[in-house]
Amino acid sequence: MNDVRSLLSEAVPQDLRTASRWPDAESDIARGRTLLKRRRRRFTLAGGTGLIAAGAVGALLLTGPLGSTTPAGQRTPLAAGSSTGGSAPVNIGVALVAYDAPQPKGYTLKTIPQGWEVASADNVALVLHKIGTPKGGSFVDKILIEGDLNAFPKSGDQAVEVNGAKGWFFGRKSAGYSVTLKFQTNQRRLVHTEPGKASASNPKLAKTRLNVMVQLPHSLNWNVKTMVKFASGITVADGAGGAVG
């Protein structure tokens, strides 16, 4: 009982203590139990608030990427080619840069895809490929620029304009194939009107408009606007010819 009274005396707040002893021990015990319950209730509430606060801090710390020091409410800048929402990265097209190497014969350039070079050139065709690609081989994953003396198409997938001249865009659904731009020029070349019956002594020739065909691989990831920009930098040099058939 003395131990209980000692505990009770410590539990009673200073402002509730009396100078005289309480005659009723049972009432003392009841009063002490009530005060202890109040203290425990206050402690429980305080501890719960602390846990909630700690949980909130943890949520804020885990909002950004692991190890991120970006303040709350600010977005971390995205690197080129990245995307949000966990979706697949966005492919960025190969950049066009100024062409500053010696100009090829036949068809000259103002721009070229970054990291690309001239693979071969003559008066009819110009081939570009990625730097380091072995010479020769197929036209897979290469750019082909070629003079075209065939009749200009009456339609295509999308009408375009290259340096003010009429052109067409021809797309391919399969990623394994190239897409094509074909545009007119103001130049004309003599073409045999009867290729299969051409006579060396008396050929039948006619001046035919020289068109330019540009085949582009899907790996460049260019939209039509970028394709037209590249094609606009192609110039037909004097003496450049084209293919028929």
What is the secondary structure topology, with strand pairs?
Layout: H1 2-11, H2 25-61, E1 96-98, E2 107-108, E3 111-113, E4 116-121, E5 125-130, E6 143-148, E7 158-162, E8 165-170, E9 179-192, E10 205-216, H3 224-232, E11 235-236
Antiparallel strand pairs: 1-3, 2-11, 4-5, 5-6, 6-10, 7-8, 8-9, 9-10
Enumerate the spans where pLDDT stays under 50 for 5 or more consecutive residues: 43-86
* Radius of gyration computed on alpha carbons: 41 Å
Order of helices and strands: HHEEEEEEEEEEHE
Structural class: alpha+beta
User: In total, how many beta strands?
Assistant: 11
Percentage of residues in strands: 25-35%
The strand line-up of the biggest sheet is 4-5-6-10-9-8-7
The description of the largest β-sheet is: 7 strands, antiparallel
Shape: rod-shaped
Number of helices: 3
User: Quick check: average pLDDT?
Assistant: 75
Give the fraction of residues assigned to helices: 10-25%
